[in-house]
Specification:
three-stranded antiparallel sheet
């Protein structure tokens, strides 16, 4: 069990959250501005499959390489899932290759997957650009198979990083979820297991 508290007398703001320290639990994160703070924790029963990290972070990966650093902000995001069509059976279906790191496909090639895809409309997910995760309106974005992402990231050092390529087929996408995930995979920890909304104040 661990708790966090914050008192700001100038704004008469009192925040207090108790975070259950369960298996797979992450530290609380904050969203919004000074008038709204939300706390989340991970366990294994609520909202499973709705929130995913969008790459390797200090919370889900031992390093030394990470996909995001403090100060990075996602400025554009497209999400793609399996289309339901077998590759090759539907000539006009869009084909994509999923990689842990589309910028270096020599990394973790055993987690690469190629399949037909369709785009998830923007009204079915919400991105947290500076915490680098996505919240889906449906479990696993409505698929039992692969989830991938194309994104543009403004880096903390002032540069811009384009993750993936959707200008020609096969699309090159960052893998967010494998067809059959298991704990040995890099992407296993991307899914938050689970999320409880504990506190918010205005």
């Amino acid at each position: 069990m661990k708790s966090t508290g914050n008192i700001r007398f100038g704004k008469l703001l009192l925040l207090f959250a108790v975070i259950l320290s369960l298996a797979g639990c992450s530290d609380p994160i904050t969203n919004g501005d000074d008038t709204e703070v939300k706390y989340y924790t991970r366990d294994y029963n609520y909202a499973s499959g709705r929130i995913y990290d969008l790459g390797r972070t200090q919370d889900n990966w031992d390093g030394p390489e990470y996909d995001f650093a403090p100060g990075d902000s996602i400025t554009a995001l497209k999400i793609f899932i399996y289309s339901g069509h077998i590759t090759g059976d539907t000539p006009d279906a869009t084909v994509a290759q999923f990689w842990v790191n589309p910028s270096d496909t020599t990394e973790f090639p055993w987690e690469s997957q190629q399949t037909t895809i369709k785009e998830v409309t923007a009204d079915r997910f919400e991105c947290q650009p500076t915490e680098h995760w996505v919240l889906f309106s449906m479990t696993n974005a409505g698929t039992l198979r692969e989830i991938g992402a194309f994104m543009i990231v403004d880096k903390g050092d002032g540069s811009t990083d384009t993750v993936g390529n959707i200008s020609e087929e096969p699309y090159q996408l960052r893998l967010i979820k494998m067809k059959r995930p298991n704990p040995s995979m890099v992407t296993w920890k991307y899914m938050w297991r689970n999320v409880y909304y504990l506190h918010s104040t205005n």
